[in-house]
Design brief:
253 residues, mainly alpha, 10 helices, 75% helix
Length: 253
């Protein structure tokens, strides 16, 4: 545990004033700003049917669907590639592996940082959603937002989205740390995101594809959400363990 804490401390220092650190805030802000602009500038005729609470749920669902189907997979892809490229581009793996720390701790630190970034950015999206809704409430009254925001819904679905992204996070971390090429890591993530957009619409395949798992939390059919979260968490833990084992036994990182 001490080895992991020391590796995490080193990662924190390396992340200061980097694009990877800034993206934690920038990614959810892009989703929020684009949604607010789209709703504020759209033409709406008459107040939509339903209560203000239903309008809040519709608004929050739209935010999270955009986040889970597009921004989150691309965010994980970019962050994993940037974390791996810190060592690949500067050829610092030999220096790190020469330190009196077990090899697995370096891999685990990268993975923990990536997971923390996913959790923090998703939490920011949920936490700032009421502020975005307040803006829409004043710029587009016809949308129907009224009353308090659905805090419990936001918290529960943010946690579910984080859990459903576990498999994807572990997979992209493994790709980024296994291959030296930044392009390879980005290509895998972008290709997976595009495929996930299509596969995610399949009730049979969507719950099993890493890039479409977060979207399943917000699908119309909710009876397999627990299955998706369980598979993602177990797959993420297993892949993380295999990645650390492989990294520990590789002759060269």
């Amino acid at each position: 545990m001490n080895a992991l804490l020391r590796a995490l401390a080193a990662e924190r220092v390396k992340l200061r004033h980097t694009l990877a650190a800034g993206m934690v805030v920038l990614a959810p802000m892009v989703v929020l700003v684009l949604t607010v602009l789209q709703l504020s500038l759209s033409s709406m005729h008459g107040r939509p049917a339903g209560s203000g609470g239903e309008a809040w749920l519709h608004f929050a669902s739209g935010l999270f669907v955009l986040w889970s189907v597009l921004m989150l997979p691309l965010f994980v892809t970019l962050q994993a590639a940037l974390l791996g490229n810190m060592e690949h581009a500067n050829h610092t793996w030999k220096h790190l592996l020469a330190l009196p720390l077990p090899r697995w701790s370096h891999y685990a630190a990268k993975l923990c940082v990536l997971a923390a970034m996913v959790m923090l950015s998703t939490a920011l999206l949920a936490g700032l959603a009421p502020l975005a809704g307040w803006v829409v409430m004043h710029t587009q009254p016809a949308y129907g937002l009224a009353g308090p925001p659905p805090w419990r819904w936001l918290a529960m679905h943010a946690l579910a989205c984080m859990a459903a992204a576990s498999f994807l996070t572990a997979l992209q971390a493994w790709v980024a740390l296994h291959w030296r090429s930044f392009t390879t890591s980005i290509f895998v993530g972008v290709a997976g995101t595009v495929a996930g957009f299509l596969i995610g619409q399949s009730a049979r395949l969507g719950p099993w594809f890493p890039w479409s798992m977060p979207l399943q939390v917000f699908a119309t059919r909710t009876d397999h959400v627990a299955q998706v979260i369980t598979v993602s968490l177990l797959g993420g833990v297993l892949l993380a363990w295999l990645g650390m084992w492989q990294f520990q036994h590789r002759e060269q990182a």
